[in-house]
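Narrative of activities, Objective 1.

The group set out to show that a structural description can be obtained from nothing but a protein's sequence at a throughput compatible with the screening campaign. Below is one input-output pair from the validation batch, recorded exactly as produced.
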Amino acid sequence: MKNALEDWYGANVVNDNEIDYSLLVIYIVLFLFTFILQYWQNQIVKANHLFLYNKVKGIVEEIERLSTNDLQYPQIYDAIVEDMPLQLAKRDGRVCQVPRLMLVTKDIVLLRPGQKAPCNCELVDGKELHQGEKLERQMQVCEETDAIEPLELVEARVTSSPINHNLENLFTEQENLLQFEAQINDAVHRINERILIPLFFVLSLLLTAYRFFNADDESLFHTRFVFAVPFLVALPLICPLYPVIIYLIKTTNNRQVFNAFGIVSQTTKDLVAILSALTTVAIIDKKGILSLPEPSIRKVMFFKSKGTKEPDDGDDDSTIPEILNLSSIQVSDDEWELDFDESSWALHLPSLLPMAYNMVLNSCAHNSDFARFLDHLSVVADSVPRTIATANRRCMCQLPIRIGFLQSPGGSPIPAALKNDGVTMGVYARQPGDPPVSGIVKHRTPLEMAFCTVQMDEHSLHSHLSSQGTAKLILDACTHFWSGEKVMPLTVKERRLSIDFHRRHSMTGHCLALAYRPVFGQIDQGLIGKYIELPLLGTLSSSETVHLVHSQSTDDLLQQNGINPAKVVTNSQDFINDVFTGQILCGLVALQYEAMPWATKLVELLDNACVRPVFFSKENELRSRVFAEKLGLEAGWNCHITLAEDEDKAGKRKIPAMEIFSCSTKSKISKLNGRFAKSDALLANLDLESFARNSPTRRQSLLTSDEDKVAPIPNKAQLPTGIDEVRPHLEAVDNVPLLVGLFTDCNTTSTLEMITIMQV
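Output recorded for this entry:
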């Protein structure tokens, strides 16, 4: 038996001193296979980069083939949309709005006052501005008129194209692994390659070595088995065909997805793995994407006479406030209509017509002038505590169209004598904003301002002044209000209700006060186009306050009040006394952004698919909650986090003595700010008591309105405040920040950081 075994071994097994070329061939084949596999994977990555490069190159070539006259740039003074990255630039011999990514080297951009540099650029004087830097601007006062000169645009030459930086990041940064890919990578590279393979290799090597030293000559266990056995044990664990299998699975899955959606594309990602692992969708932009570019009118407020009593008898209830709700209805993809929620709105037509007339005179045709005024206010607001320059004046032509005052957006019922360009004036005051509100990290009050248009009347002795602005400044300039039947003196009651309405709706959207007055005299050309800054501690007083009396001719009225139609207003003080003050309050308008129907439907579909939508908003908590609820997101208690740093923790700013003195001389602030700590129901009842005390029908309608119950919700769950506190909260407390659906006070950096946290 022993001789037969030795004969078989001698015939089939080589001696120890001979070379076994079969194992050498196996090792060479494995090495070549590994080398080819690595080369193949690198080629896949290069092919993906080449695909992106060719796609970008094709777009650039397509743009170059187009004629310069065929390029459609957005209009310069369309709706002011902060979320759309557009930049004023000189292109093709004209000024136009250019997407910032399309700026190229040597482009001439026009930096607006208060604007951050969109990219690295160089000014005319050689000063360099890096991306994100602001150019300091100084106000200049005209010595002849004492008015403020408007801040002009500053030309700068682009030194580096923004798209170059984006493309460099696109081709250099490493792609984030999906959760499924990360698990495979962790199992293959960390567990298998770093733990299992070395463990089994060393263990098999020790066992074969032990057997080699303890075996006799009859065991036929030779030297080569000491190294062959460990490799044979580790080889199945390496699985050389694994990358090929994964690639085939990805290709098959992607082909099925492309066929299902009917698209032709190329990617190295497994789309099935992406879609199956999708748990959250981040929604970032709002204005112009998820909502209309322009906010729509939601409420109008005006005052009506309650009875036949004269206002001089001391009856504080002679007038009542009326609030009408409106809704926007989408007629087609690009057309929306405005409609009243109440069918009896026509009963208030005498009160709505003056407001519509104000909207027509001070319309969106003056957007270019208002854009310059808003840029000027943005610089002013940087030096006024707790204020912000808000683009609260928007296109409101839908309301005149709805009540029949306008037949179409292009039509106009203005008499031919008023169909002229008119002049525009801007008035503002450096009034500090309201005190901080508990529960809101960044509370900013709109800077007190008024944008006025003066239409010259060729057939009479006067012109028409139409003002739109913040309630406090407009009310300071008003002495009367329109009650739907007659002009009545403005009392403390109307002022209080108007300011309360404005403050409340300015927190959840935009609010404007509308006023009108006839102007007697002419405005000097040197004053037109300039801005008037009201004194901080001054009081507006009109030398032309007209106390209207029935049955009195215009000539007698002018002579009695000492009005000279030939007088020319030459300085800012005369403009304040003779033009701006003595206005008649027409009413107030509240505007809010409406969610697009497809966006609301998308959120509903994502919820049904168990995918949680998360909304990142640049606005504060109140405005963000209103729009989030319109989208269908849950934005109540324990459902929102602010990513802005708490200013109280960062340190309180020292208040200048001038501000303290001005605050002490003002009348007592409205009780609105003290209500925020109370419950929603109590807050609604308090507001309804002031707004609809004498109107049972309005009280019933307001009680059913959810928008009037918006208030800061106390952070009872002690959620983190600021992006820097999110990670420590996740490590030490709980994972609630990963479950909320609304993040407020966001910027680009904090949004990107929060998305990165959610992807880990």
